[in-house]
Amino acid sequence: ENPALLRLRSRLETALPNRLPYQDPIVERLARLVPAHLALFLEGARPDASSASYVFLEALARGTPADQKEAIYAALPDNPHLRNVLVRRGWLEAAHPAFRKLWESPGALPGITRHTILELRDPASYPRLLEEFVADPSLDFYEALRGLPGIKDQLQAALDRLWAERPRDYASALSGASRLSVLMRAGRLEALEEASRLWSRLTPDRRAHQTPLIEALRDNIASLPSTSPDEAALARWLEGKHADAFRFDPSLRRFVTP
Hints:
Blueprint: H1 3-15, H2 25-31, H3 38-44, H4 53-63, H5 69-75, H6 83-88, H7 97-104, H8 111-120, H9 126-135, H10 139-146, H11 152-164, H12 170-175, H13 177-185, H14 189-201, H15 204-207, H16 211-220, H17 231-238, E1 247-249, E2 254-256
Helix pairs in contact: 2-4, 3-4, 9-11, 13-14, 13-16, 14-16
């Protein structure tokens, strides 16, 4: 590792026990060093480098000259946080080849990488995003995908996969409540039936420990008696209600009772 970087990082960490305000003069002085020491700052800005990485990132955002922006792009696949530098400087180019490397990289996508790819709204990235979605579904991810142009048919196919590939044994099904939540938000009555079935099989003492399932029901049933009923109230309200007593309201994008 670069000895100069080690010394600078050590000094920053020693001198800055608390997070440094971005308006601190130190940041501006560091920014003036960026053109001559770009590689050092890129290395220091890696999120796993140290607790001072945000200082290096801010210095890059202020001090990188336009003729060095390609170096930022080249480092982007290894450090998606550098997207902030590109945005701040007005250099974000959705068609840049560096972005393709983001969704072609192996392994699960870190949250910052996923967020960056979603913002690009590039149809070429949709297959990778949908693979990530099927592997790790969540309501936030689903809502972000719904906003992408031209993805509707592919997203419907991904929802079909979510249902077809759901866990079938009881314990695994309980742990997959986020999958059911997404499917309920998409208006799938069969997901509501499954969530209700899982809930009905829980003994009262176990219901309090099933927060994901409780949240899935609360998030997707608009006609619950309150926005956050306790487990006992939720149990009383659901008792005797079959899934076919609900209908999906497209405007609310929630299930309601007549």
